[in-house]
Amino acid sequence: xxxxxxxxxxxxxxxxxxxxxxxxxxxxxxxxxxxxxxxxxxxxxxxxxxxxxxxxxxxxxxxxxxxxxxxxxxxxxxxxxxxxxxxxxxxxxxxxxxxxxxxxxxxxxxxxxxxxxxxxxxxxxxxxxxxxxxxxxxxxxxxxxxxxxxxxxxxxxxxxxxxxxxxxxxxxxxxxxxxxxxxxxxxxxxxxxxxxxxxxxxxxxxxxxxxxxxxxxxxxxxxxxxxxxxxxxxxxxxxxxxxxxxxxxxxxxxxxxxxxxxxxxxxxxxxxxxxxxxxxxxxxxxxxxxxxxxxxxxxxxxxxxxxxxxxxxxxxxxxxxxxxxxxxxxxxxxxxxxxxxxxxxxxxxxxxxxxxxxxxxxxxxxxxxxxxxxxxxxxxxxxxxxxxxxxxxxxxxxxxxxxxxxxxxxxxxxxxxxxxxxxxxxxxxxxxxxxxxxxxxxxxxxxxxxxxxxxxxxxxxxxxxxxxxxxxxxxxxxxxxxxxxxxxxxxxxxxxxxxxxxxxxxxxxxxxxxxxxxxxxxxxxxxxxxxxxxxxxxxxxxxxxxxxxxxxxxxxxxxxxxxxxxxxxxxxxxxxxxxxxxxxxxxxxxxxxxxxxxx
Length: 599
What we know:
Shape: globular
Strand order of the largest sheet: 17-16-19-14-13-12-1-15-18
Number of strands: 30
Structural class: alpha/beta
Helix content: 10-25%
Mean pLDDT: 91
Number of helices: 9
C-alpha cells in the first residue's frame, strides 16, 4: 500500500509495449484495464529428430542449465494483503503458486484500503491458511490505523496499540508463520505527514518502538525500514542509527514501485550490501515487500522481469503491491478465477530444484530452473516482441533428444479471466554436441509471458516424487550447500523446540495423484553419534515420531535414510518435519534434512 507514486521511468520500453504512466497520488486506487495489443499467431519452426533449426536474427535469452544460482524458493511469489479468510482466495488457487511470504495487517486492524468497507485479513486470522499454502508472513503494525497516510494520535496511543498487537501475537500459541513485525510503512514518505510533525524523527521512533516490542516479545524478528523507494542516504542514516542503538532489523525492507523498477533491483541490493559492509555489519535478508506499479502489475511479462531480477539479486522474498481488493493474490484472481498473470506465477510455482543462470538480451528476460529428479528444465520468459530465441545450454544431462513444449499467456488485464495458458507447440529437439538447443519463438507479444518446458523424450516421472528440503518452507533453520546432498543443498540447524516463535521445522508442500498410503523416504544426516528424533505431521493431523539413527559420514553429508508411511489425500498435502512445533513435545538430538521421496 503506497501513497507514494513515483514518476514513470525515463527508460524507453521494449518494442510494442503499451505506454504506461504512474497514476497520480490522488488516484492511487483507480482500476486500470490494459489495452490489448494485436493478437499475432505464435509460430515455431522445430525440426523433429534433427539438429536445432536455423532461425531469423532477433534477441536471445540464454539459459545455462549447468550454472546454479540458488535453490528454488519462489522468491517473488507473495503479496501485500494477498490472502483473506474463507475462500478469498481459494486454497486450490493458492497452492500451485508455492507462495513464499505475505505481508498482512495486524490483529485488530482498522485499515480500509482500496475502497474496502470493512477491515480484513489480519495476520492471525489468516495464519492457518497461509501455513497450509507453505508461506510465511510479516505483520504490518501501522495498518492498525484506519486511513493511509495513517491517522496518528499520540505516542501514548501508538505505544498502547503496539502493546496490544504484540501481546496478541505472543498469545497465538499455535501460529508458527509470523516472520516479523514491520514497524512502519513508507516512513520516508509519510512519517511526518502521518504524525503532523509532532512525533520526532523516524529514526528515534524506530528505536523507541523497537524497544517497546522487545519489552514484550524478545523473539519475533523486527523488519524495516519499509522505504517507499530505495534511497542511499536515507538508508545509510537509518542503518547507522539502528547499529548505534542496538535496534538493527532482522530483514531489510523497501519497495520497488516505479515502472520498470526491476531494472534497479540489483543496484539497490548492491548498494545496501555496501552500506552493511561500511558499517561492519553482517548481511541480512532483503525483502521487497511491495513491487510493481499500477500500470504494469497486470502485465504478465513484467512479472517475469521481477522474478528474474529478484532471483539474480539474491532477494529473500518479494510481495506484489496492493493495488486491488484484498484476498485476490494482488490481482492474480478475478472473481476467484485466474487472470493471465496468474499463469506466469503458476509456471514459476512449478519450478523446483535449482534456479539456473539466465542471460537476458535487450528486453528479453526470464527465470529458469533445473530439477535433476524430475528431469525437467522450466523456463519462464518474456518482455520483448517479434522473433526471438531461447538458447539452452547444458542439456546433455537430459540425453540426446528432448521434448520441448512452448506455452504462452494472453494479455487480458485485471478483469478478464484466463482459464488456462495456451499451448503453442510441442516438438522434439536433438541436443547438439555442445549440449545446447536453440528454440526460435516468432510473433512474440512484449506483454505476454511464455514458458518452455524441456524434458527427455522418455523416462520422465509422471508426477514429482522427490522434494528437496532446501526448496521447502524452512523456519528457524538454515539452507546449506553440499556436493554430496541431492540437488546440491540441504537444511541444517533444525535445533529449536522452545515455543511457536522459535520452533524449527521444514514444511513440504507435496502434490500426489491419488489418495492412498505412500512410503516416504527421508534422506538425512545425524553426526551426533546417537539416535535423533523429529516430529512428523501432515495436513494438520496427529503427530508421530521419526527416528534417525546416527550416520558416520559427518554433518553436511546426508547418507542416512529413514522410511515412514503417510496417508495422503489426492492433490496438495502439507508435510511437516519438526524439532519443535505446537502440539509436539519436541524432538531429541539433531538431524539435517536433505529430501523426501514419496513412492
